[in-house]
Design goal:
The protein contains five helices and ten strands. It is of the alpha+beta class and 181 residues long. The chain folds into two domains: 61 residues, 2-Layer Sandwich (Double Stranded RNA Binding Domain), CATH 3.30.160; 88 residues, Ribosomal Protein S5, domain 2 (2-Layer Sandwich). The longest helix is centred in the middle third of the chain and has 14 residues.
Amino acid sequence: MANEGRKPFRKPREPKEFDDVVVSINRVSKTVKGGRRMRFSALVVVGDHKGRIGFGMGKAAEVPDAIKKANEAAVKNVFRVQLVKNNKEAGANNLTVPSDAIGKHGATSVVLKPAAPGTGVIAGGAVRSILELAGVTDVLSKVIGSRTSVNIVYATIDALAKMRTVDDVAKLRDKKVSEIR
């Protein structure tokens, strides 16, 4: 009876628009007159499992602050990825990349290839987190060159941005989809 008309103590949490994954946390230092200044750099990838992903970097004196800054930067950099249904059957929820693509950044190259239904995400580390947050369920990938996580993220995003569906290519060529297939 005493609680009637009162507001609850806490607001109910609203569901987050994006899931986030911390790909790497790096301790960086700056040498100054009095010694070394330590700071932390964080790399975060966000996605909604429906084809929208983004990434961001943040730097701060403490790890949680760096992650928060990186998360805010990642949400600002969100873009849509081209995905296609992997299986023509009704109710199939398998998504894959529409074509082969090679993304490059620095000394790193990332190769992405579509895979058959049931293959899963064949990728490691940063590539896996990006593809899972994008909503890809079947894909093959290979990292060639440098294994630096920042370069891998940039190269994977580059490969995903290069993806074109059959419909997109048909529009570019001024043809109907039936002529290409």
